[in-house]
From TrEMBL:
InterPro entries: Gfo/Idh/MocA-like_OxRdtase_N (IPR000683), Gfo/Idh/MocA_Oxidoreductases (IPR051450), GFO_IDH_MocA-like_dom (IPR055170), NAD(P)-bd_dom_sf (IPR036291). Residues 8-121 form the Gfo/Idh/MocA-like oxidoreductase N-terminal domain. Keywords: NAD. This is Putative dehydrogenase. Residues 130-239 form the GFO/IDH/MocA-like oxidoreductase domain. The lineage of its organism: Bacteria, Bacillati, Actinomycetota, Actinomycetes, Micrococcales. GO terms for molecular function: nucleotide binding. The keyword Transcription does not apply.
């Protein structure tokens, strides 16, 4: 920290994710959690000695500088707009909103007030993905060819207002565009409804980024096996990231000469060295909160911006549109 200023923080939403926000807000330097709100109460005892306020207006009245919104997605817009009007810098849990139109209104409101707004795409702050992005940016993989993600596991009962595309796939959309440093140009998808809910619970998507990298995402809520894997293949080999364990492994292209003429000129057919990297593994939520704090204080700006959160939501919506229409959705416009 390069300032002695302490930010007065508020938190709305004390559910499964909100309780972790409350813990981290109490742990990091330069932030004082002064108010919490949740009309449903405090099932996890996250409020501590603070009274549980009923709504966002009561939270604002507590005199806060920053706020974290950890309520169900359908309520994001109304709460975010109230915080913007009150001049409160805000971190909104992903996705930014339940629809792109709502997300556009949030972006406009914070821009009009000159406030810092961020979206809680926490995977960007996973130490293994941060290490991966650093190595990709340094050119260690050479040209990037393909990014594949797999994110699947049991259905979370706490999610009821959006499908697996907006809840889980948005993680992979954001991290893919971020590590490749390129937006999506096109997306095609298939979805399935297997759990009897109104929202999709399985997604298979394939697409292309503006820089030519091809991508594939497997996402579902119906697997007893929890998997959080990102695979990046390029000119010099393949990186494999397990974000559940924050492990990063590199599989190098082999350099063993071959006498088989038909494949001698084809790079990447031989198995090379395998390296599992060692690096510091800090809690992603803490790193995310530190980045938001520093953005509010003007120290650095590596949060997931509202504009980036909106673009991610648009890609997630395009997945569903593609499945509904059977068409490839052009996102390049």
């Amino acid at each position: 920290m390069t300032t002695n200023r302490t930010l007065r923080a508020g938190l709305i939403g004390l559910g499964a994710m909100g309780r972790h926000h409350a813990r981290v807000l109490r742990e990091i330097d330069g932030v004082d959690l002064v108010a919490v709100a949740d009309p449903a109460g405090d099932p996890h005892g996250a409020a501590g000695s603070l009274p549980v306020l009923q709504d966002v207006q009561a939270l604002i009245a507590a005199g806060i500088d920053t706020a974290v919104v950890a309520v169900p997605t359908v309520y994001h817009e109304a709460i975010a707009l109230a915080l913007a009007e009150a001049g409160v810098h805000t971190l909104i849990e992903k996705p930014i909103a339940d629809t792109a139109e709502a997300g556009e209104r949030i972006v406009a409101a914070f821009a009009a007030q000159g406030l810092v707004g961020a979206v809680g795409h926490i995977e960007r702050f996973n130490p293994a993905l941060q290490e991966l992005r650093k190595r990709l940016a340094a050119g260690e993989l050479g040209a990037i060819y393909q990014i594949v993600t797999r994110r699947q596991g049991p259905f979370p009962a706490r999610i009821a207002d959006v499908g697996v595309g907006k809840d889980l796939a948005t993680h992979d959309i954001d991290l893919t565009a971020w590590v490749a440093q390129s937006p999506y140009a096109a997306i095609s998808a298939q979805i399935a409804y297997r759990s009897g809910r109104e929202h999709e619970d399985m997604v298979l998507a394939t697409g292309r980024l503006a820089n030519g990298v091809i991508v594939n995402h497997t996402v579902n809520w119906l697997s007893p096996m929890k998997e959080r894997v990102t695979v990046v293949t390029g000119e010099r080999g393949t990186y494999v990231v397990d974000t559940a364990s924050a492990d990063l492994t590199f599989h190098a292209n082999g350099t063993i000469a071959t006498e088989w003429d038909s494949i001698a000129a084809f790079r990447g057919v031989a198995e090379g060295d395998v390296i599992r990297y060692a690096f510091a593994k800090r809690e992603p939520l803490r790193v995310e909160h530190e980045a938001f704090r520093d953005a509010v204080l003007g120290i650095r700006h590596d949060v997931v911006t509202l504009e980036e959160g909106l673009q991610t939501l648009r890609v997630a919506e395009a997945m569903v549109d593609s499945a509904r229409t059977g068409k490839l959705i052009d996102l390049s416009a």
